[in-house]
Amino acid sequence: MSTLYLYRHIQTSQVLVSLRQGMKNKVLQQQSIKQRPPRLRKDHWVPMLAISGFDKAETAQALHDSILTRSQQKQNSKINATISGQPARLREPLEREQIQQTLEALQEALTHTLPKRSTEPLRFHWENKALSERLQWPEHVQHGDLQLVRGRIPVQASSS
What is the pTM of this model? Predict the structure, then answer.
């Protein structure tokens, strides 16, 4: 069973999507070069959401790719529509705020990439359950709490 992880940066609210529990520097390429480049400090990136219950690794990869594509499109349209004329010191914090747009991209990706599931539902394990209440999720999604040990996902919890 595959698991998809969403990590958030505790200072900048940037979001990274990963198919691995441990992050590598390669995942940082998801962020735009125009923004202040994030560093991979393990004490700054915390798990925001772990999605489990995929029947195949290809399904998790398709959802991963769809989230990234939709999130980058939302980021570009947000920059062009609302904050492009602002000075850089005001614009940069708004550009880095990615939690809401990533959740919207996840919701859209679920409805388009995985429209209906006849097998097990997907299980969303949230760091903060209030984030799950921001949007309307499909019926094939179950929500639960993300159990962290010292700020990290325990190995046995990621396989359930």
Answer: 0.79
